[in-house]
Structure formats: C-alpha cells, structure tokens
Amino acid sequence: MYRILIVEDDWEMNQGISYFLEKNGYGTVSVHSIAEGKAAWEEQEADLILLDVNLPDGEGFSFCRWVRERSQAPVLFLTARDLEEDALRGYELGAEDYVTKPFSMKILQKKIDVILKRTREEKGAAFDDGFLRIDLTQARVQRKGEICSVTPTEFRILKEFLAYKGQLLTYDVLLDRLWDGGNQFVDKHALAVNMNRLRGKIEDEEHKYISNVYGMGYQWIGK
Asked: Do 39 and 63 form a contact (C-beta atoms < 8 A)?
C-alpha cells in the first residue's frame, strides 16, 4: 500500500482527502503543520506528499526544500494561492504539480495515480547491490561484473519483480503477465522451471533474490 503524507492545516479538508484516498486503497498520514510533517517523515518516509503552501508555522515551500535534501519522493502542492510566481517556485523546488483549491477529488486521485505509477517504473528500472546489477533500460544483467545471459521470458520476470519489489506476485498474476493473458499450454510447472533457471543464473549461496511463497507465488527479496 502506498503511503501518502498530507500536510494541510484545514482540518476538514485534510480529513476529507484522507478519507477519499483511503477509500480508494491508499494509506495516509494526516498532519497540520511543518513541524508535524517533519516528525511524521522522520518516523517513516512517504511515497508521496500532498502539501499546502500556507501553514501555521511557515510556507510549504520550506518543507518541500527540507524533504528534497533527504529524498526524491514526489510532492504535490495543494493551495488557494494561484499566483504564477508561486506555482513556478513550487516547480523550481522539484514539485510534481501545483493544484489550486477548490479541486476535484477524482482529478486529484488521477494525478496521484499517474505520479506513483511513473515513480514505481523509474524505481524499477534498475537494481544494483554490488553483486547483481540489472539495467532494464539497457536490457543488461550482470553478475559479479560479468554479463549474465537471460532469456526474454527471464528478462520479463525480472522486469515484473523490479516493478513490484517486495510484493507477492501470485502464480496467476505472473502467468497472465508473462504469457499474454495466460497461454493455456503454460502452467505453474513451466513458471517454476523458468524461475529455477533464472535463480541459478543470478543467485549464489550468499545472494538470494527470489523467494517462493509456497502455494501462493513468488516475491523479490533483493535489497
């Protein structure tokens, strides 16, 4: 579940956004000031920040700058200030978007969906822990610095794992995604064969990346 930090001093709006997002599958943390936002961030980082500009203890711009010194988590400004210079300042600080109040909750969710989808894809574009390096943009896999030859199916498996790091991918989901809707001649055994072959290529006794969750599916456990 994605975690969204809402930094908004209007209690009613804050709760309204939180309720709507949680109803649509997101996890939220609601705070009402910069100080509370920093405390919440230090306790656990968020996948995205919804940030008001006018806050009781300062401008949201300063909080955005503080976050940027620590993370590239996307920031989406929500504000009643519609001056062009304010929007430009937000973009210059690295904000993804600048949404003026009032706004549609459905449009806000769509913006969040698009931002998080792109962020997930960017995060999943590469993996490098010193032993194994996967570069999806270059279609290259290296193990201990040497090119590791993988099949197209194995490469698609890696792509799925990196897009959903740490998440359980069920047998049915993988069969559907890897073989275009689940070819009737492909079953769990064929999937297991591909997984075992891939593990033999990228793993050793000290480096494990793919876990078989018995009876359910597979999970990427590389850090």
From this structure: no
Q: DSSP per residue over 178-221, as a string? A: HTTTT-TT--HHHHHHHHHHHHHHH--SS---EEEETTTEEEE-
What is d(CA 195, CA 212) in angstroms, rounded to the nearest whole number? 9
pLDDT in tens, 38-72: 999 999 889 999 999 999 999 999 999 999 888 88
How many Å from the N-terminal Cα to the C-terminal Cα in the chain?
18
Asked if residue 76 lies in contact with residue 95, where contact means CB atoms within 8 angstroms, the answer is yes
How many residues can be counted in the chain?
Answer: 223
Instruction: Say what the pTM is.
Output: 0.59
The stretches of the chain forming alpha helices (DSSP H) are: 11-23, 34-43, 60-68, 84-92, 105-123, 152-163, 171-178, 188-202
Amino acid at 8: E
Encode pLDDT of 10-49 as tens digits: 999 999 999 999 999 899 999 999 999 999 999 988 999 9
DSSP for 167-180, written as a single string: -EEEHHHHHHHHTT
- Tokens 């290259």 belong to 140
What is the rounded CA–CA span in Å between residue 108 and residue 4? 13
CA distances, 7 to each of 62, 78, 119, 125, 154 (Å): 12, 9, 20, 30, 42
Query: Quick check: 102 and 78 in contact, CB under 8 A?
Result: no
